[in-house]
Amino acid sequence: MHTDTALVHLGRETAAAAVNPPIVRASTIVFDRLAAYKQAQHGRLFDAPRYGRSGTATTFELQRTMAALEGTEACIATASGLAALTAVLAAHAGPGRHLLLCAGLYGPARTYAETELARAGTLIETFAHDEDITHRLRSTTSLVCVETPASLTMQMLDLRAICAAASARGIPVACDSTWGTPVFFRPHALGISLSIHAATKFIGGHSDGLLGLITGTHDAMAPVRSYCDRSGTHATPDACWMALRGLRTLAVRMRRHQETALAVAHWLQTRPEVRRVLYPALESDPGHALWRQQFSGAGGPFSIELQPCSEAQFARLVDGLQLFSLGTSWGGFESLVLPAVPHHLRGLTTLPDEGRLVRLHVGLEDAGDLCDDLAQAFAQM
Ligand SMILES: *Cc1c(COP(=O)(O)O)cnc(C)c1O
Questions:
Q1: What does the pLDDT read at residue 352?
Q2: Predicted confidence band at 45 (pLDDT cuts at 50, 70, 90)?
Q3: Which residues does ligand 1 sit against, CB inside 6 Å?
Q4: Closest residue by CA, ligand 1 atom 2
Q5: Ligand 1: distance of its center to the CA of 109 in Å?
Q6: Which atom of ligand 1 is nearest the CA belonging to 210?
Q7: pTM (two decimals)
């Protein structure tokens, strides 16, 4: 089944006569007989009703759908994208173990590893997006964790090379796949063991829910599954239901985000206020060849590097925008602007120079209206 069809037809097993499955909210699950209760305790966690914390029918619908969309066996939903990342990292951490993270990994996940996990005796190291990781792997390396393209700097990684180096030593590679979504990115086909999504972004698509999703084979998911069980990371059935609904329109939304983002990016390249547009979907981008190899599309968001300007000019630009709201996150139907926070760039070997980095999420508005909005804000700047 093509992804577009799967998005429409999967995840409706418990719908009965309705088109959409109802939300099942539960803490307590009751059983008819002792034998059924015992059987549930021996089943795989997060795959069947046991206790609310390991999910309800709504959770399982979403998890089965997501595993199928990613072409793998299992999925676990978590409270947020960050909770999914920290669960994967913590499940592979421990005294004497070594975690190798790409420098462009989502900032709060890196901070979590460098504080909480390092404090408990895990060695945390980072590598640059264009580095050959072969010599960075150790006998104690338990996980390589990447995000492509990198948050904010939009640098691409050579995932095939990274997976080949890691798998030669039996080390799993986890990848934050939020930007590509299952519509444009097939992480497991490239050799990724664990794929992580902030479903808060494109999958939810409406800026009204937080959710994380982790997918992989049953074997690859085993440590993550036990960690999630022990730590109580839990996605609410309501958030899972909203993500299922978001999936129905994901393919059309992604193609429209891509079309509009490309139009806005090309227009930005003609502007004197803009030094560089960082978007792997552009032929001028240094990551374009890798993007073409690994992705079948690009929804955005992307970043721009401005020509050097004063703080006051920068404030006039951001404050002058009417259609781009100022806020964290992306992936919703509405356009957003965010000044790139230096905190997220820490440790990158190729820091952009003095020009300010700004991240744009191009929503589902008309491309011409968005360019007009940017033009009038540049004029105020
Ligand atoms: C937003 C984001 C996250 C975190 O997701 P939350 O649901 O906000 O915790 C993780 N990874 C990437 C790439 C993100 O953009």
A1: 45
A2: confident
A3: 80-82, 85, 106, 147, 151, 176, 178, 198, 200-201, 210, 212, 329
A4: 198
A5: 9
A6: 7
A7: 0.95
For residue 330, the CA-to-ligand 1 centroid distance in Å is 9
Mean pLDDT, range 203-220, rounded to an integer: 98
Measured distance CA(53)–CA(374) in Å, rounded: 45
Section 269-297 average pLDDT = 97
pLDDT (tens digit per residue) in 82-108 = 999 999 999 999 999 999 999 999 999
Q: Which atom of ligand 1 is nearest to the CA of 85?
A: 10
Tokens of 188: 């497991």
pLDDT at 122: 98
Does residue 203 have a pLDDT over 70?
yes
Question: Each residue of 318-338: pLDDT tens digit?
Answer: 999 999 999 999 999 999 999
Nearest-atom index, ligand 1, CA of 212: 7
d(CA 43, ligand 1 centre) in Å = 30
pLDDT at 348 over 80: no
Q: What is the mean pLDDT of residues 165-177?
A: 98
pLDDT at 274 over 50: yes
Please tell me the distance between residue 209's alpha carbon and the centre of ligand 1 in angstroms: 12
The residues carrying an active-site annotation are 53, 106, 176, 201
Ligand 1: which atom is nearest the Cα of residue 200? 7
